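ARCHIVE CARD
CATEGORY: sequence design from structure
SOURCE FIELD: tokenized fold
FIELD CONTENT:
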């Protein structure tokens, strides 16, 4: 029996994600699917993201149905089992026979023919008891363990979210992570809803920022406006961080790839000199394509040692982080990240922030941001960096948020809900966007 193109592509992508540390979203938007029909692209995406979102739940059910420990199975076999189990449990329109037989064929194609009977037996067993995939929605008093099991999250993550944000917020974060997030757009000033409509794109106003749009239907990546860089796919929380940078004459984005925030800053500051730095040359090339405004200078350079003898009145330090605020878009992070990784990330983030502060001119501001929900990467980084800087003070983000509200840029009405102490903190599910943190630091005039 032949394997459909969508299932084969999903299988290969999942193997690359597991083996090579690739990101599923990058592969799903690569040339791998360039010749696929829209239906095959949609099914491939559903299969890849579904398996990654529900991996723990799938493995739990597979372990109960399998005569061998899953840890002893080759990755090719386990991936075929996960794909089959996801279709049996979550895709009602897929016939059980197709889910089982094509998973068996995937194992054979991977030269694991001896495992084909096992794949067949395990999936047939699950096909006969599809009710086991259903798990009751946890109540308001659910424990972290119950939430982790229901929403297929690592227990250690759910426990810390419940402690840091409360049980209700932790449940909403987990639920949001298991959903398909809205596609948010950032529009150049000259792009109108009528233009998008003419290209088959229907959108709704942004929930966080008024200028943003949320795609209701249509493929924005096929539009002329997208090809010309006048429309970009960018989460609203990411757009909000860029808006908080404000305006300046000289602006530095010191960890700039892939370039969404740089492009948004350039749109807001067409007369400014903007320097966008990125450590890795291949990512700097991507940055150049996305932030293509003439006033943006791209550098392939380390944020810790920028080859510049300049100070800037606005600096953005959107540092590399765990990405726990983006699990709806990058579910593989759940299974890669270990609690011990946070200390190493913290050290690197402190070093970048300290170096970035040296680039701020007296009276200038720095925005420190992450797409993480973890205090080690957020408030604790700011606190440590400030401990050695008497010339820098922490501002209250509410003032900047209120300014954006007063200028009718911020659509979200409850400004206080966006703040955690003096910091910006969006929470997936609590807010209709990814989880982002931001702090505004000001270098004292004359310092």
């Amino acid at each position: 029996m032949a394997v459909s193109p969508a299932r084969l592509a999903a299988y290969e992508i999942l193997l690359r994600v597991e083996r090579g540390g690739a990101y599923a979203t990058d592969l799903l938007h690569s040339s791998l699917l360039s010749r696929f029909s829209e239906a095959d692209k949609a099914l491939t995406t559903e299969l890849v993201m579904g398996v990654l979102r529900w991996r723990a739940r799938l493995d739990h059910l597979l372990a109960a149905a399998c005569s061998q420990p899953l840890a002893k199975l080759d990755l090719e076999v386990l991936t075929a089992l996960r794909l089959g189990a996801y279709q049996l449990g979550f895709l009602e329109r897929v016939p059980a026979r197709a889910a089982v037989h094509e998973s068996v064929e995937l194992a054979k194609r991977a030269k694991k023919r001896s495992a084909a009977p096992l794949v067949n037996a395990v999936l047939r067993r699950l096909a006969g008891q599809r009710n086991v995939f259903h798990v009751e929605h946890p109540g308001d008093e659910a424990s972290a363990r119950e939430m982790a099991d229901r929403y297929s999250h690592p227990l250690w993550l759910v426990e810390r979210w419940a402690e840091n944000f409360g049980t209700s917020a932790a449940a909403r974060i987990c639920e949001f992570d298991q959903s398909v997030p809205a596609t948010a757009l950032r529009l150049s000033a000259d792009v109108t809803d009528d233009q998008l409509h003419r290209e088959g794109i229907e959108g709704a106003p942004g929930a966080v920022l008024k200028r943003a749009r949320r795609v209701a239907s249509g493929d924005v990546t096929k539009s002329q406006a997208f090809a010309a860089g006048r429309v970009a796919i960018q989460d609203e929380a990411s757009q909000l961080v860029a808006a908080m940078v404000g305006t300046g004459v000289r602006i530095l984005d010191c960890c700039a790839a892939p370039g969404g925030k740089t492009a948004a800053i350039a749109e807001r500051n067409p007369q400014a000199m903007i320097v966008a730095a990125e450590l890795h040359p291949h990512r700097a090339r991507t940055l150049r394509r996305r932030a293509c405004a003439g006033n943006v200078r791209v550098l392939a350079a380390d944020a810790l040692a920028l080859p510049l003898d300049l100070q800037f009145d606005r600096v953005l330090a959107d540092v590399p982080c765990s990405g726990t605020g983006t699990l709806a878009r990058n579910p593989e992070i759940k299974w890669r990240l270990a609690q011990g990784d946070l200390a190493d990330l913290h050290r690197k983030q402190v070093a970048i922030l300290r170096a970035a502060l040296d680039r701020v001119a007296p009276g200038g501001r720095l925005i420190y941001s992450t797409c993480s929900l973890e205090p080690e990467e957020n408030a604790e980084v700011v606190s440590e960096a400030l401990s050695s800087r008497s010339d820098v003070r922490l501002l209250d983000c509410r003032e900047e948020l209120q300014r954006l509200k007063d200028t009718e840029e911020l659509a979200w009405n409850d400004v206080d809900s966006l703040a955690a102490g003096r910091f910006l903190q969006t929470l997936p599910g609590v807010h209709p966007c990814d989880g982002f943190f931001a702090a505004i630091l000001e270098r004292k005039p004359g310092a």
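CARD ANNOTATION: The mean pLDDT is 94. The chain has 19 helices and 13 strands.
SHELF: design records, drawer C
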